[in-house]
Amino acid sequence: MGRAERLDKFTTLLEAAFEADSGTAPYGEYENRPVEFITEILGFQLTEQQIEICESVCTNRETNVQASHGVGKTMLSSCLVLWWVLAVGGLAITTAPTKRQVIELLWGEVRRTHKRLNLPGELGQTFLRLTEDARGFGFTASDTNSNAFQGVHHPQLLVIEDEACGISQDIDEGASSCATGAQNRFLRVGNPIEPGGAFEKACKQSHIRIPVWQHPNVAWAYEQQEDGSYRLKKDVAAALLDEAGDIRPPHEWPDWCPSDVIPGAVSITWIEEARAKYGEGSAYWQSRVCGLFPEDSAQSIVPRTWFLAARARYDANPEYWHKQAKVQRYRFGLDVGDGGDSHALSQWLGPLLWKAHAIPTKGDQEDVTRAAGLAIAALRETSGNIHIDRGGCGSGAHAILKEQGYSSTGVHWGEAARDPAQFLNAKAEDYWAVREAFRKNEVAIAPLGQWEDMLMEDFAGTHWELTSVGKIRIEDKAKTRKRLKRSPDIGDSVVLGFRQPPIPQPRRAPAARSNW
Predict the structure, then answer these.
(1) How many CA atoms lie less than 13 Å away from 92 in the CB half-sphere?
(2) CA distances from 54 to 28, 78, 327 (A)
(3) What pLDDT sits at residue 514?
(4) Exposure pattern of 72-99 as b/e (b: 16+ CB <10 Å)?
(5) Which of 152, 163, 151 is nearest to 187 (CA)?
(6) pLDDT in tens, 74-96
(7) This model's pTM is above 0.85
(8) Radius of gyration of the chain from Cα atoms?
(9) By three-state DSSP, how is residue 435 classified?
(10) Average model confidence (pLDDT) for the chain?
(11) d(CA 336, CA 340)
(12) 502 — pLDDT class (breaks 50, 70, 90)
């Protein structure tokens, strides 16, 4: 089905929804009481913030919710769909960035609740129909554009943007243009993971923020510090953390420490693992734990918005990027861990960052061999050149690869740059080349799985600065470690991998022998 046909399809669906039909909402006594409908009819327990959202949707034309991870935002949206159709007797339209988010998340919750309680109405994968006037349905925002919303109006309309941070300005404006009636309602809800979009602009006007700290699963365990941060209470920390400071598994907790009051929601275990893995200054922590939009720093070597744009470029047209990369050789970068840091390996194919991952070091005599083995396994799968920082432990891994005949280039980041007038050293020059490629939209990033957020934080948390004579340098690694709470190992490997392999020089003819 082509794009024009998809637009026609969704426009037809939306317009058909407004062919009015008489009917009485079966739960009409709850028309202005969404909280009671959700707790008494649907049987859900609501947090204080969820109650605030329900009351806002009931009384305000627009409600924006920037929420942390695992606080029940999608579940609440599904409950509001059921309330709007079955109690208000109106039309509920939901949209989200991807098909999975529409079908499996929000409408998955609608289907489970509807079937569990045997509620009235005809139920489909992404629709609920009581009458032609009282109904709800969802569609994927990426399948359409603002034209599908034009001309769609209803006296009792609820529009919900789920995972709103992924909704474009064009789609958001189209959806907003529908909810013009006095009794119309517009709800945007999502993790505030990306600044600068339509969701952040709406939240700047007004919003309800839901950090994790007030959720029943964790509120009992944390207290706010003088600097505004949250830490486990002393007695809770003593009971739940082991000698290394890691969270114990829930079955080892004492009886006075409850695990999950609401199963499947945010947990202490997840919070403490996120703190250790990403650090409190990271975008991951700010958005998914605190419910705040992360801020880009002008000093970041690759700001988060540039990184997210590079990921989006690949998703928008993977065939194009594979075509650009097809004639290129693989380039690898290996950062050899030292003193507890991880070994990290990256894999570039032309302008496409194809893979990146890391393995922990063990601190034994086999660590260098283990790092070399990580590189050898990748080079056996796909041949190419690998760059290794040969300072410190990297020299051993570089030697092993050279001895076994692999194309390995040793790099010493402390050496002079090729352009010493602009850069303090080779490291600054290599990092700046990566920055410029991101800035000029010359590179793309394939899905990196669990390493994606970590790489984004490595780049955002590594800052550049100017020396007293105006040369660019990368800040001392101790500053980066303090900011990230770890070493930017994956970031280093990606920068090494981006480095172009040396151009083979033609062999010179031997000099003529002198008669002198």
Answers:
(1) 31
(2) 16, 12, 55
(3) 32
(4) bbbbbbbbbbbbbbbbbbbbbbbbbbee
(5) 163
(6) 999 999 999 999 999 999 999 98
(7) no
(8) 28
(9) helix
(10) 86
(11) 11
(12) low
